[in-house]
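Database export, one record per block. Field names are fixed; values are copied verbatim from the stored entry.
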Amino acid sequence: MTATFRIFVVDDDPFVRDVIRGILEPDCVVETFDSVETCAPRLETVKPDMFLLDVRMPGMDGYTFCRQLKDDENFAHIPVTFVSGQDTIDARMKGYDAGGEDFILKPFEVEEVQRKVAIARQIVESRIALETQAKEAQKFSFMVMASMDEAGIVLNFMSQLVAWETERDIATGLLDLLQRYQIEGVVQTRIAGRSMTFSASGENLPLEVSVMNHVSGKDRIFDFRNRSVHNFERVTLMVSKLPLDNPDYCGRLRDNLSIAAKGTESKLQSLEAMELNRRGQEGILATLEYVRGSADSLRQTGKKKHSAARALLLALDERLANEYVHLGLTEHQEHQVSDLVTGVMKQQQDLLDNSEETDRVLHDLSERLGQLTAGLGNKK
């Protein structure tokens, strides 16, 4: 990562420029310009690490300036974040079409600006760290393209798809597929209640997420400008830079991408079913463990009450025997009291015998639950 992160802020509002400078300095080097025209000469001598562009300005607007930057190989890789007072899908689509990476809505919070700059900084760091690997991957891609025909590329993708076990693996495979066709794109996966968006620029970039959320609600397959979108329940694939000047090749390309997207949908459906099944099994195991613990707790409580009841009966029997002498009862009265107490004690003993049966049942239940949870645990 660069030792000093330099940001060019282009905005015709001096207050906005001062606020952004105050938020970002001294962690970043901030240079401000009131228009694209005043910024352009500076680019001849200094290349920033990030642009913060106002959308509407006198002279050239932010969208046009961004397109110029992205068309220039010297600046195309520099992250551009738009700063706008318009929060509409049209404004975001314009920013995406211009090549921007992110979007900040006015009025903004200090934390939001810092977070957006941190995201751009991560993009720059990743680009610098992966430049060598990207060059090697490009060489490998060209070698693969030379040795495989169009159908072979998608067949190779489908053969590898079987082994991938995460959304990230699958999305990376799809992006690699696009690279082999020498086109670009964005992949969004949606399984088990979560959504993830991937592109060559990174994961879950806000502007890309916003655009993909929008197009995912459209038709199954549709084209706009030089883009093609393939929508399924669990995956959306949006590709750009289609070779519209070659209609035959473009048609074959759409067919192959549709096959890849459909295969991805089936794989994601399988992964989702496995994950939901695993979650259900974990819930069952947790419930069984709870029931088993409750059964053990009831056993222990029953044993304590059983022992206490026996002790009370013995103490009562002994005390009555000792008290007969002092009560002045006749022999007949003693027999009556003794018979009454003996009857009550027999009833209590029957209840204790039943509690022992309950203890045996709870013990058996605990053992069976233990065997069942062990068996289910081994199947996970």
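Remark 1: The first helix runs from residue 14 to 24.
Remark 2: The CA atoms of residues 123 and 254 lie 30 Å apart.
End of record.
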